[in-house]
Design brief:
The chain is α/β, with parallel strands linked by helices. The chain is built from nine helices and twelve strands.
């Protein structure tokens, strides 16, 4: 992974930006040459949906679904990979019953859940046994942590997240909770995944990289594009790097955020948040039409 190019300076709606890295250019070329064998994979929050203070109010960018519906029929597959429950991402994204998105797949809980647009079916495993005691102990831990007012928890079914974005000092609250939450998670067989002012307690072995590798393998894709914005997307970036080393071209897109410099640094292309992602999807659809 290497340097990046920021496409936010170009206001042309259908301009297809050139990746700054050789590997990224090869990935884009492969996608354009054989779109019917390409997978486009996307994170949800911060990539298709703008980040908001209350995750329950997150919704896909208003132009995201039309852009995906224009692009998807020309590809092997479009998959949304998210830490949210799949059903929530489908609802907040407005992905159900959309012409052109017949074969969209949403992998929720980092791949533990799967929703298929073609059938509307949702498959989900039993929750990890450590989640119940973690939920029971969290309120007392948060009260004793001194993290401050405004810290709150989000129930995610197969995980639980602690948000600090509403705290008076979000970063201080985030740092104050890192160690106690990590210790709590470890006692019950879970791990902590840090994100943008959020710490998520979830089962080990669940990450976007594993989900993406399995999906690319199952679809037999000849190229892959992955777009994300947060620390939880780093495993997917690493997965694309591994796929490239094995001969599958890939393009890594950062939905630009100054809060996650490692992701920007590792991207082949940086776009201006969900608006930039929509422009990229629309430009790809126009090029392939």
């Amino acid at each position: 992974m290497g340097s990046h190019q920021d496409s936010s300076r170009d206001d042309s709606r259908d301009h297809l930006p050139t990746p700054a890295t050789e590997a990224g250019r090869a990935g884009l070329d492969a996608l354009l040459a054989e779109p019917g064998r390409a997978v486009v994979a996307l994170d949800f929050d911060g990539t298709l949906a703008p980040i908001v203070a209350d995750p329950d109010r997150a919704r896909a960018h208003p132009d995201a679904v039309p852009a995906l519906a224009a692009l998807a029929p020309q590809l092997a597959a479009v998959v949304v990979i998210t830490g949210r429950p799949a059903e929530v991402a489908v609802r907040y994204g407005g992905f159900a019953d959309v012409p052109g998105l017949d074969h969209l797949v949403v992998l929720g809980h980092y791949g533990a859940e799967r929703w298929d647009a073609a059938t509307g079916t949702l498959s989900t495993p039993e929750p990890h046994p450590g989640l119940a005691p973690v939920r029971a102990e969290l309120p007392d831990l948060l009260e004793r942590s001194g993290a401050g007012a405004g810290t709150w928890t989000e129930e995610k079914g197969h995980a639980v997240a602690v948000h600090t974005r509403r705290a008076p000092d979000p970063q201080a609250a985030f740092e104050a909770l890192r160690v106690p939450l990590t210790e709590l998670a470890a006692r019950h067989g879970l791990i902590v995944e840090p994100g943008r002012m959020v710490l998520e307690l979830r089962p080990p072995g669940m990450d976007k990289g594993a989900a993406l590798r399995a999906y690319v393998r199952d679809t037999g894709a000849a190229s892959v594009l992955y777009a994300g914005d947060d620390l939880g997307d780093l495993p997917a970036f690493a997965a694309v790097d591994v796929l490239r080393s094995e001969g599958t071209p890939g393009l890594l897109v950062c939905s630009g955020s100054d809060e996650v410099p490692d992701l920007r640094k590792g991207a082949d292309l940086v776009v201006d948040g969900p608006t930039g992602v929509v422009r990229l999807l629309r430009a790809l659809a126009a090029r392939l039409a």
